[in-house]
């Protein structure tokens, strides 16, 4: 269910946000799940809601899959190149309605490469001091220069966002 928040400025609460990532490994025979920490972000809810703007910063160096060796490899130059590019950013986020579905279009920058993404918004629930939202998108890692291991790992991965935004 999508509830439209009242217009105003909200901040994403990193302690109550989850950025999950899921992709395939070993020729698609297994799934690898992980999580990035959210550093922060803002949601400026406009009137009308389609005039809203969303920004977020994700800590690329904090990716955790539960396997220390895999996490180190994913931080290397072959993939996220976390030392050189410690942030994944989401900017220009604008909501729009497509039939019964709400979408959030924006620009993601990974490894210094920017690309457009479209997140499907699954739920927005109002709270007394803000709102929670759930959205997901599929990202092509090759589009962001992560082409190493083409045959070992899947080309696409799913990002799932569970966020809490509090009135500023």
From TrEMBL:
InterPro entries listed in its UniProt record: Lipid/polyisoprenoid-bd_YceI, TTHA0802/YceI-like_sf
Domain Lipid/polyisoprenoid-binding YceI-like: 9-166
SUPFAM superfamilies for the chain: YceI-like
Domain of life of the native organism: Bacteria
Homology family: Belongs to the UPF0312 family.
The protein's name in its UniProt record: YceI family protein
